[in-house]
User: Which sequence fits this backbone?
């Protein structure tokens, strides 16, 4: 009887471990970004054993050097509107790679591109910026991530410079857990993501640059449409240091344009 | 008599095949109308709440969309747990 119980217990433990091993993504860090493509998942067979291969072979990777891109402002582009209302139950999340805020599951805020609506899923920060201008980084960069029900991913990027402090940014830093994968869902704090947009822009009719790209973290999936605002926001030097207290140098280096142009609505 | 019968049958088949061809010349639908789902309450509510004024505040709604959670792209769940 005891033997049977021990055998069943051992089987259960083994099954749980095996399941975890299969479901967990391989570990990666920004320090090893040059070889993300080579990270192997030994639990998978070819080709899934290189889950981040697109980071190495993709031709439309992000970020890019905006100063190296050809800007085409002759094409008519869709109207861009960031219709972000207040989220009453955001989740402050330490992703293990950056400071992130997940919108609540019934949050209605969205990015309107023409007549299409792309729900805001989360926004997060990189230090320094990922997009550069002629090789020069901004102190930080904000990414709003939107995903439509058909799976399309849209990222709205805002460069961050040093200047006046941003109260919302401060609130985010104060409520994000310091432990990796920590989530703070019970802060009872309301956040309006629109308050991180440049104040002198009309959020209902934004000027922008747009380019096809990818996720800037593994698996570096392409098919992501990037929208970059031409104006920056500011945070204070102290706030930037506070951000760096979480993660520093969590930015991917600029990737080859491979013939891509920046389309401009201006 | 037999010849007349044969000609009548041939003519009938020819006419029938012409109609069949004209039906086939129409493009077939990729998705039959009976398979198309109507837009979810999520989409219609998004359109209603997407006001031109960006300062419009939205509050948490009831969990009417909970029934649609299972149909969300897996990337949503991925990006809630990873930086993306």
Assistant:
């Amino acid at each position: 009887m005891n033997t049977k119980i021990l055998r069943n217990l051992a089987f259960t433990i083994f099954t749980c471990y095996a399941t975890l091993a299969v479901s967990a993504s391989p570990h990666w860090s920004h320090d090893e970004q040059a070889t993300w493509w080579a990270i192997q998942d030994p639990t998978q067979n070819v080709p899934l054993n290189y889950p981040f291969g697109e980071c190495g072979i993709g031709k439309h990777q992000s970020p890019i050097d905006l100063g190296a891109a050809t800007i085409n402002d002759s094409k008519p582009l869709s109207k861009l509107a960031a219709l972000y209302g207040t989220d009453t139950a955001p989740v402050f999340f330490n992703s293990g790679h950056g400071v992130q805020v997940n919108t609540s599951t019934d949050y209605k805020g969205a990015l309107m591109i023409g007549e299409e609506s792309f729900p805001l899923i989360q926004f997060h920060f990189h230090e320094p910026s990922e997009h550069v201008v002629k090789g020069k980084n901004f102190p930080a960069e904000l990414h709003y991530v939107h995903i439509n029900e058909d799976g399309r991913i849209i990222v709205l990027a805002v460069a961050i410079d040093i200047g006046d402090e941003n109260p919302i940014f401060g609130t985010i830093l104060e409520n994000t857990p310091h432990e990796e994968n920590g989530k703070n869902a019970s802060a009872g704090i309301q956040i309006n993501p629109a308050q991180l947009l440049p104040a002198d822009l009309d959020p209902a009719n934004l000027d922008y640059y747009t380019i096809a790209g990818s996720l800037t973290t593994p698996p570096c999936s392409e098919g992501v449409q990037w929208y970059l605002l031409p104006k920056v926001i500011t945070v204070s030097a102290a706030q930037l240091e506070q951000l760096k207290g979480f993660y520093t140098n969590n930015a991917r280096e600029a990737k080859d344009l491979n013939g891509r142009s920046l389309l401009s609505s201006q | 008599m037999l010849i007349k019968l044969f000609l009548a049958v041939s003519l009938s088949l020819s006419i029938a095949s012409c109609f069949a061809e004209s039906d086939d010349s129409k493009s077939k639908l990729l998705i039959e109308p009976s398979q198309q789902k109507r837009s979810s309450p999520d989409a219609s509510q998004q359109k209603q709440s997407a006001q031109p004024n960006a300062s419009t505040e939205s509050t948490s709604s009831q969990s009417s969309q909970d029934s649609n959670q299972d149909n969300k792209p897996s990337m949503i769940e991925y990006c809630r747990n990873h930086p993306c």
Summary: Chain A has one domain: 3-264. Chain A has a mean pLDDT of 93. Chain A touches chain B through 46 residues (CB under 8 Å).
